[in-house]
Amino acid sequence: MHVEFDRDTCIGMYQCVEEWAAFEANRDDGKADLVDAEETEPALFVREVPEDAELDAEFAARTCPVDAIRLYDDDGDQIV
Predict the structure, then answer these.
(1) Which domains, from first to last, does the chain contain?
(2) Mean pLDDT, residues 14-41
(3) Dihedrals φ, ψ of 46, to 5°?
(4) Residue 67 — very low, low, confident or very high, per pLDDT cuts 50/70/90?
(5) What is the average pLDDT across 58-62?
(6) What's 6-68 look like in SS3?
């Protein structure tokens, strides 16, 4: 499973930060940061989700009010 985070879409509600430790609040920018992610396109960050964090990642994606977080399974199908 991997997560994609569109930082441009993020509005800084930080609900993802409460759900998954991979997200950190960047109060200077007013947006969240996805730790250990690779920027694959401008403002699009991607990283693998460890098996023990899959539920937390799903909660983070589901709580994002602007759908800036998307989860994909190993086949590339979108989960959230």
Answers:
(1) 2-72 (3.30.70.20)
(2) 98
(3) -130, 140
(4) very high
(5) 98
(6) ECCCCCCCCHHHHHCCCEEEECCCCEEEECCCEEEECCEEEEECCHHHHHHHHHHHHHCCCCC
